Amino acid sequence: MTVLGSLDPATYAPHRLHGPDRPFPETNCYVDVWIELLHAHGLDPMAMLGFCAAIDWEDDQWTFFKPPLADLEAL
């Protein structure tokens, strides 16, 4: 049994957040996986991105942002 067995890699279209015309090509691999996983399940990954507003500056760098698991479960 596969989780995404009905998807065909030859015809799968990534979410528009990963489109070739996106203005910000840098990625966060953890968030990228969740974007595509939610998209593949027919959910809107934009709904999970609210956590980005809570990112904090820690003197020398930005906090590595990850969607809270409780938020993903609520989706």
What does this structure look like?
By secondary structure, the protein is an all-alpha fold. The protein has one domain. The protein is built from two helices and no strands. The protein has helices spanning 29-40, 69-74. The two termini are 23 Å apart. The model has no long low-confidence stretch (mean pLDDT 81).
Give descriptors for this structure.
single chain; 75 residues; mainly alpha; globular
Query: What is the number of beta strands?
Result: 0
Low-confidence stretches: none
Provide mean pLDDT, rounded.
81
Quaternary organization = single chain
Into which percent range does the helicity of residues fall?
10-25%
Question: SS-based structural class?
Answer: mainly alpha
Principal-axis shape equals: globular
Could you describe the largest sheet, including whether it forms a barrel? none
The N- and C-terminal alpha carbons lie at a distance of: 23 Å
Strand content: under 5%
Radius of gyration: 14 Å
Write the element-wise H/E pattern from the N-terminal end onward: HH
Number of domains: 1
**Alpha plus pi helix count:** 2
